[in-house]
Amino acid sequence: MPGLNKRSHWAQTLYVLLLCLALIGVTRFLFAAYFGIYEDDYTRIPLALKMNAPELIHQIVMAFTGFVDHGKPLHTTIIYTLAMLGVTLNGLQGIYLIAYLINGTNAILFFLLIKQISPTKYAIIAAISFVLFSGDITQAFITHALGLQTSLTFLLLAFHAYGREKRWLAYTFALAVLLTYETPYLIFLTAPLLFEPEWTKTVFRSLIQHALILGALLLAIILLRSVIGETRITGLGFPEVLTTPLSHMLQGPIVSLGTYLYRPYQALITLPWLIWFALLPIFFIFLWTLAKALEWDDGKFPLQLNLDRPSASKVASIMDRVRLWIQSDAAEFHLLLLGLLILVLAYPLTFTVRAFAISGRDTRVHLAAALGAAMVWAWIWTQILLWLKRQRTVWVGIVTLSTLFTLLVGFGLTVQGDMIRAWDLQRIFWNQLIRLTPDLDKGTVILVSPDGLIDTTNIGANTWSLPRILENIYLFPDNWGINDVPRVYRLTPDWEIYILGEEGIFHLNARTTVASRSYDRAVDPSHVIFLDTIDNELRRSQDVLLIENRIIELKSHSSPLIQIYKPGSIYHLIIEPDVSDNN
Q1: Which residue stretches of the chain have pLDDT < 70?
Q2: pLDDT tens, position by position, 118-136
Q3: Alpha carbon 395 to chain centroid, angstroms
Q4: How many Cβ atoms from other residues are within 10 Å of residue 450's Cβ?
Q5: pLDDT given for residue 79 in this prediction
Q6: Which residue in 144, 344, 432, 576 has the most C-beta neighbors within 10 A?
Q7: Residue 237 CA to chain centroid, in angstroms?
Q8: Which residues contact 100 (CB under 8 A, 6 or more apart)?
Q9: Residue 559: which residues within 8 A CB-CB, separation 6 or more?
């Protein structure tokens, strides 16, 4: 097939880019107007909602001078800066707009990168696979979009700079990955191989030099983080520092690739059939795109199998057929090897989260796997489609892949549904809690029984972040210390066994509460309010609690004080107007 003219080439490129942006919008952000704040968001987003320019500069200076946030100062800087920009645009929904743009930028950069090194057909399938990658389901989660997805942006920019032989710029972007979120960093090792289909001795010499530079940068950051006592470095023991990366490199690729089949199954069993009728237009768009992609040829990367069947005299065995196929231009076998290598290198730096996570915020462990998984998945399906084309049944492959892609879009809608549900659960919980605890004052601790608290599969509602939320709903006096600010804790299922010490003090720790361990403490029961769920509503205990056959006196009801506290940055997002008319 003759090469495309320049106008057609740019038209195809523009079509794919717009398709990717549209798919991101539908799959991850279609219902963003109903999203809220979740889990890690409560660390920074409430401050960003009320931050001014001097406060932003102060946070940036603190990030770099103190090397805060586990030694990743760009992580903090980017989140605050982009969140503040989003607030300026349109409040919380402005932040989600920024999150969408980051995801879209990554899709554009990925497609343009893969298009440089592969046939157009393969690049299109890879781009769609990247956009619909669902090993990591946190792409729309504000903190992860602003603080994690941006590390992928820096990685992709590093690849583009390297391909244009702007090496110092490339290594600057690579350093930015380390200072933002380090797990994608080692993928950049593949840069010399990415732009050279023929892996000669010269390429491997460049690879060694490249690896030495990246190793030096990584070592410098590790030493710096060790000097400042960053716990994720100093807390690593032997042999875990070696065995964890190895096990993750084995487990992670299997899990992330498996999600291309598992997520469609999840979508089928969770979404109502009415949604599938709504998704039919997307299915037909996939059909048309894949059918056209098999016709498009930019004349640079031939991807056509030899239609002449090899004779028995030429091919004596199946192994000979495989060998000839691997050696053929049609196989583009180096793309598979590259994809596998990139996929494996996505996991060595994932020390803190299990590599087999498939739900919740822990799926961030698969963040960097999106690149390699998309490349491997695209290679597999490119070969399947070309083989079916040879058999004159290519429509079977197109329909099958279009169906899988459509189901992945459907799974994205289930994640969005969980985000909406989790935000609703938070607002219901906090409105009930505020009504029940109008007398919360200095040092008050509210313990919530887990019985009756509803959880979603894909994002946390009222879980470990509870202790840090109340101080963002209300503004408490500046002179109150960390243990003076009222806090809410979700109890563990077996909390009653461990909470009470011999001295009659409640011990809030890993055995008794679902919370960040920075909020562990011992508290006198006279400062404690206990909430349980009865008939789907929170109820307050009547000043006493029976634990292990002991009657414990709790904080007694007193005069309402809540009206003296001014609203915090998230008050009007989460609290109904009639809860506290004075606020």
Answers
A1: 1-5, 68-69, 227-238, 297-331, 578-583
A2: 999 999 999 999 999 999 9
A3: 34
A4: 17
A5: 96
A6: 144
A7: 27
A8: 24, 25, 28, 29, 32, 140
A9: 439
Q: Please give the C-alpha separations between residue 92 and each of 60, 264, 461, in angstroms, as whole numbers.
A: 21, 31, 18
Element (H, E) at 538: strand 537-540
Residue 5 has what DSSP assignment?
P
Whether the Cβ atoms of residue 445 and residue 523 lie closer than 8 Å to each other: yes
End-to-end CA distance of the chain: 71
> Minimal CA–CA distance to 263: which of 407, 413, 418?
407
Contact 412, 132 (CB under 8 A): yes
Specify the residue for token string 């993750």. Answer: 248
Which tokens sit at 344?
């494996």
pLDDT value, residue 305: 34
Residue type, 261: L
Tell me which amino acid residue 463 is.
Answer: T
Phi first, then psi: give them for residue 36, nearest 5 degrees. Answer: -135, -140
Q: Which of 87, 108, 98, 90 is nearest to 139 (CA)?
A: 98
DSSP code at position 339: H
Alpha carbon separation from 281 to 339, 402, 568, 574 (Å, rounded): 31, 11, 44, 36
Among 122, 120, 402, which residue's Cα sits nearest to residue 285?
402
Neighbours of 415 (CB within 10 A): 25
Q: Helix (H, G, I), strand (E, B), or coil: what is residue 551?
A: strand
Tokens of 516: 């960040």
Q: Determine contact, residues 368/189, Cβ cutoff 8 Å.
A: no
Q: How many residues does the chain have?
A: 583
